[in-house]
Amino acid sequence: MNGPLSAPGAPAGSSPPPPVPQPAGVPILRLGDVLVTGLLNELDDKSAVAFTEELTTRIVGDAARGVLIDISRLEVIDSFVARTLMELTTMARLLGARVIVAGMRPAVAITLVELGLQLTGVETALNAEAGLLALGWQQMPRPSGEAPRDSLR
Amino acid sequence: MTLYDEQLTRSAGLGPQRSPVRAGSATYSVSSEEDLLTVRHAVRAATVEAGFGLVDQTRIVTAASELARNAYIHGGGGSLTIEQLRQPPQQGGRRGLRLTVRDEGPGIPDLESALTDGFTTGAGLGHGLGGAQRLMHEFSVHSTTGEGTTVVVTRWNGR
Asked: Residue A28 and residue A41: Cα distance in Å, rounded?
């Protein structure tokens, strides 16, 4: 397993690095066995495909069991983005990871339903915090006189 | 073949009589993925200018995104025209936004099927055309095999 927040591919030799897909511009952070990432509003088709490839690669590389995708900055989800989210969820599930999509804006939820899209099979949460909770993360206990314990999870 | 919805009973381009006043229009090319983003920004700005609330803004931008993507993917590129509308005072004086999406692609051979959810020949979910219809107040599509497709959608600001 990789070290924490390992940068992808520090090449050992001097050979040219393999062609990597254009990153979607959103970092994918690893917290234990959970990957945390998000989508930006400017998600075009190429970025969506690159994001899918990068995330599935990271799920396997980091042996992730959960993925949190924050979409609170997405102002529009059209059928292409919806399809991307549904496919990502299925791919992650096939790789043994559970995806939670968190932080959908109310106007986006209304529009999606009217559009006829229910994001079938995609698990959601009100916000990133609730999503992380569902993926097994506990809120850090407030210090209450006890010595700080390293029990983040 | 032409399908109409609600009050819009004329095809695009013909100035309807008894019509809302056009208060300005702009046309954007839809021939690359970057154009799709540009169009979304432009439509968003137009909805704000027309005084739409946040949910209506999202509806209209989403419909524009679906239609522009259709024109780009299925129509081989095209254009999107945004028109600011205002009804005459005796009809309520509401403001509205009309989007006209044109392409010169192969056309849609079977419009009934294309308006059915789940029907797709491309990389979407097949909700584009029918979805755009539901998100807008008025909808018309005119498609001729071999000549292209024009979709006109309008949403009125209720307030």
From this structure: 16
Q: Where are the alpha helices (DSSP H) in B1-140?
A: 33-49, 54-73, 111-114, 128-135
pLDDT of residue B16: 44
Rounded CA-CA distance A123/A121 in Å is 6
pLDDT averaged over every residue in chain B:
83
Mean pLDDT to the nearest integer, A77-93: 92
pLDDT surpasses 50 at B76? yes
- CATH code of residue A71: 3.30.750.24
CATH of the domain at B122: 3.30.565.10
CB A84 within 8 A of CB A52: yes
Whether residue A24 lies inside any domain: the answer is no
Which has the closest alpha carbon to B41: A22, A41, A26?
A: A41
Tokens at A48, concatenated = 């969506």
Say if A80 falls within a structural domain.
Answer: yes
Residue A8 covered by a domain: no
For residue B5, what pLDDT band results from cuts at 50, 70 and 90?
very low
Q: Using CA atoms, how far apart are residues A128 and A134, in angstroms rounded to an integer?
A: 10
Quote ipTM for the complex.
0.79
Distance CA B128, CA A146 (A): 57
Q: Which uninterrupted H or E stretch holds B85?
A: strand B78-86
Q: Report the residue of B55, B61, B66, B70 to disrupt the A interface, i.e. the one with the largest count of A CBs within 10 Å.
A: B55
Inspect the interface and report whether the beta carbons of A76 and B65 lie closer than 8 Å. Answer: yes
Number of domains in chain A: 1
| Residue in A45, A83, A107 closest to B55 by CB | A107
B59–A114: do the CB atoms touch at under 8 Å? yes
- Any B CB within 8 A of A113 CB: no
Does B131 sit within 8 Å of A79, measured CB to CB? yes
Q: What domain range includes position B139? A: 2-10+20-156
pLDDT at B10: 36
Q: Does B88 map to a domain? A: yes
In angstroms, rounded to a whole number, what is the distance separating the alpha carbons of residues A85 and B143?
Answer: 31
